[in-house]
Design goal:
Layout lengths: L1 E6 L8 H15 L4 E6 L20 H10 L3 E5 H6 L11 E4 L1 H10 L2 E4 L1
Helix pairs in contact: 1-2
Length: about 120
């Protein structure tokens, strides 16, 4: 099975990105044969920034991103969205790549389920 998780919200401020990555991690843990693809759009491209520092005891989206990637998940960030926020050329978290709408369209066609956060 192939699952696409589409995230639109910033990494912090709401818990949508946090819950999206929690779902991705749970899918990978409980269903290791499922391919999990995560596409970051709009303010969610901030999830892909490297070297995030959060207070002790607070969730860290970068660590969650790395966990999903290290378990075979693919994570792509919208290039147009990154350009609009001036972050295309900054260091991305391990496992995150800049992408485009054509690739999102392909992932959508290939996905058996699409979740939007």
């Amino acid at each position: 099975m192939n699952i696409l998780i589409l995230i639109n919200d910033a990494p912090y401020g709401t818990e949508k990105a946090y819950n999206a990555f929690r779902l991705a991690m749970a899918l990978q843990k409980d269903h290791p044969t499922v391919q999990v693809n995560v596409f970051l759009m709009a303010d969610a491209v901030g999830c892909g920034i490297a070297n995030q520092t959060t207070p002790q005891g607070y969730y860290n989206i970068e660590r969650m991103v790395k966990s999903v990637a290290s378990h075979g998940g693919k994570i792509k960030a919208c290039g147009t969205c990154a350009d609009a926020r001036g972050i295309r050329n900054i260091q991305l978290a391990e496992g995150v790549e800049i992408s485009n709408m054509a690739e999102l369209a392909q992932w959508t066609i290939e996905a058996e389920k699409v979740f939007t956060f």
